[in-house]
Amino acid sequence: MKSSNAFKIALAAAIVAVLAKAFFGSQETIEPIVYWNKCFLKDQGECEAKKTQEFSVTPAPLSIPQEQLDDLKTRLSMRKPINGGILSDDPWENGMNPLYLEEILSYWENSYDWRREEGYINDNLSPHKTVIDGLDIFYLHVKPPAVSSTTSHEKSIPMLLLHGWPGSVMEFRYFIQSMHKLNPNYEFIIPSLPGYGFSQAAQVSGMNPCQMAVVVQKLMTQSLHFDKFFVQGGDWGSVIAHYLAFISPNEVLGTHINMPQVRTPIWAIPYVYFFHWEDGKRSGLLPLGQFPGKMLNLWPYLFQQATRPNSVGIGMQDSPVATATWILDKFYQGMDPQSDISKDDLITNLMFYWLTGSQTTAATLYKEFLWSETSAQ
Prior knowledge:
The chain has 15 helices and 9 strands. It has helices at 2-24, 44-51, 66-77, 98-110, 114-125, 173-182, 209-223, 236-247, 269-273, 291-298, 300-307, 309-318, 320-334, 343-354, 359-370; strands at residues 57-59, 127-132, 135-142, 157-162, 186-191, 229-233, 252-257, 275-278, 281-285. Helix 11 (300-307) crosses helix 15 and helix 12 runs antiparallel to helix 15.
């Protein structure tokens, strides 16, 4: 037992050291390394051809071929019975809850309606595409009623919304509605990050969060011609928003993030970051003795995707069951226990990965970040 605990503590210490370097870095201010004129396609001929389309803006309504939806339904209908392994009083203790997974898969196969969601996106969220650094970048552009029929930004309050993993642009659908009730002049620009959803993935290395900040900066200033704008980011979006404010201080009016980064001494991380829940409320700081087990439970996905993203992503590209298992388990771990997110919303988020085959390229962002030149800045 003692040797097992010692191993856990040693492993936790190693994890802390790696993450501290990646997420907290050194105490000095370092200029981020970014490339302002780099094409992220492998074929230079294609790069040259894409230059003529750089910053062009075109409507991009979603219209998924029916055969693609039929293929998904067939795969779901042919899934094997789930063997959940050891039964436990807590069905989430060993990872994805097998009973809940079956409930989701059954609903996905028999009740979920992508065409309804597709229609909502096209009718209400105004999907567009532009070309930046050689890549096709998909984004939603929700204008306020006052400027919905014009390109003028005079009366609007532009706000860039940035998602993370395992999210998508669809995580903002209700936020938009709530914000427009507060102030109808908000204008929302919501890009799929490169390699996520309907945005093209980089074909060469270097598309880390700092470089993604360059992409979204160009989206706002060169594709859409905003002089000033606000930024909100969650998860990876928080990291990107952090870099964006740094590299573009004259354009960013204000930044709101819901995953703040602070330069915390390594010894304080267990006390600062690992709260625990009791009765649906944060009741205090996680005791240090529970820290190793908590880390081992929460972070294996991060190390898998930061080292061998292909090994988990390729399997998901071929299996909706694998996609749902991997992504929804992370939703459960990260959600407020009181959340009442619907099956439709969860599955629509899954569809942004499944329909585009972006499971691997999205996961690769972890590797690009942890092993890039900007990871310690």
